Amino acid sequence: MKKNIILLAGAILTLTSCSLSEELNDSITKEASNNILGSDQALSSAYQQLRSFQNNDNQLMLQEHPSDEMAGPTRGSDWDDNGTWRALHLHTWTPDNAKILGSWEQLYKGLAFAIDAQSFTGITASQKAQAVFLQSLYTFYITDIFGQVSMREPGESVSNLPSKNLKRTEAIDYAIQILEAQLANLPDGTAATSYIANKNAGNALLAKMYLNRAVYKATDATGKPQAGPYTFPAADMDKVITYSDAAMVGRTLQTNYFENFGPTNGEVSTELIFTAKNTNTEGGQIHSLSLGSLHYNQTPSGWNGFVALTDLYNKFEAQDKRRSASVPGFTDKHGLLAGILEGPQVDEKGTPILKRDSPGQLIFSQDFSLTNSTEEKGMRVVKYLPDYNKPTQASNDFVFLRLGDVMLMKAEALARKANTADALVIVNTLRVKRGATSLVSLTLQDILNERSRELYWEGHRRQDQIRFATFNAAVQGRTTVTDAHVLIFPIPLAKLAANPNLFQNPGY
């Protein structure tokens, strides 16, 4: 995937490593760094930090493991990791959970880069708008996960505590406000340049923030989140509809669903709205999203980890292309299907793939145990197709926002305004394109289910379940109904000690 990151028409952004940016941020003055880096390189660091989303750690896993889509079984001594994955699925995490701490550092690092880029001398209006978009994006994620946001203003000294400390009810309004103020200054973009924060991306992010705003506003005086069902103001839903319409301009549904996630997705997909860019020579760890699930004896050899829940698998019709599909140029060469892998596994010649630790064919079962699974237990997922040109340095771009998501956001907003007729048209347009049958009627539960079918393992599910008030319910592998305090995660203890403006979230 050979692409240049274009900040302005005709201008090439020179990439700077995050480690260099960290060193400069820690050891020299802002005036000196202005002279060394400049606004292009500073903004580059903010973009590069987006690659931290595309692996088996941190924010993406906080959105999927606690949901009804994913689990991490322990297989002997494999994948135990001190119970980290079990705690996420069982909703029993504590403030010292490594994935929670990693998510905090991941998100705040990106937020700092985005804010820092705005303070550089000579930054253009377009560059500033892109930096504000990234600031809004990180603020949204921090609000969603941790329920409070502490940040500095551009140019503020890092030797002082952050001056802006926002509660959950305030942070969402702030993230919306700063992005709306800069929306007109974002560059135009196409699906092929979706790795640049563009107007479509700004509109899509605003639609998502307005859609979830009612959830964050439902917080009591102590900071404890309130469980749904929530009341969604009509004015917010109108904003979702308006911004969704603007976000969809110039985008069309991809004929082959899995091309949205293949090694050339940034070049061929017509759905992409905002992505993180990867190439075979430069990029993140996106290969881990498939290898973390695939079995050792499959091609490429995986790590035999995360599995899909029956709660997800059973939502699909058999003919729905999103559940599982043979992809030309992929399945015929390597034997691997795309989507959810269930049942007997074979190679490209139809020869059975064998188990590693016991005789017989590898047959993925729907059942699993969080504490004691054998190697074949649990259905696997291949969402981002392995890049066989360089399996551990894949060129698949990581997808943050795309057309299918925005269509369903608009449908949900319409349904929450009791306009199920227009919402049904949108949902059926998507379903027919994906090979599923049309629905004859539509409920909010239907929309939640469709979001799972369309967006599984993309990092949306926890947020969606919370909005629809199903997150705390029992699922496969978790038999208990959990308390509302787990709707947000705890503040890591080390971060509380370092910043007295933070407070521990109730229930932890």
TrEMBL record:
Record's signal peptide: none
One annotated Gene Ontology cellular component of this protein: cell outer membrane
ATP-binding is among the record's keywords: no
PROSITE patterns: PROKAR_LIPOPROTEIN
Subcellular location per the Swiss-Prot or TrEMBL entry: Cell outer membrane
Sorted UniProt keywords: Cell outer membrane, Membrane, Signal
Domain of life: Bacteria
Domain RagB/SusD: start-end pairs: 375-508
Keyword Signal (UniProt): yes
SUPFAM superfamilies: TPR-like
UniProt cross-references to Gene3D superfamilies, sorted A to Z: 1.25.40.390
Family (UniProt): Belongs to the SusD family.
Protein name: Starch-binding associating with outer membrane
Organism of derivation: Flavobacterium glycines
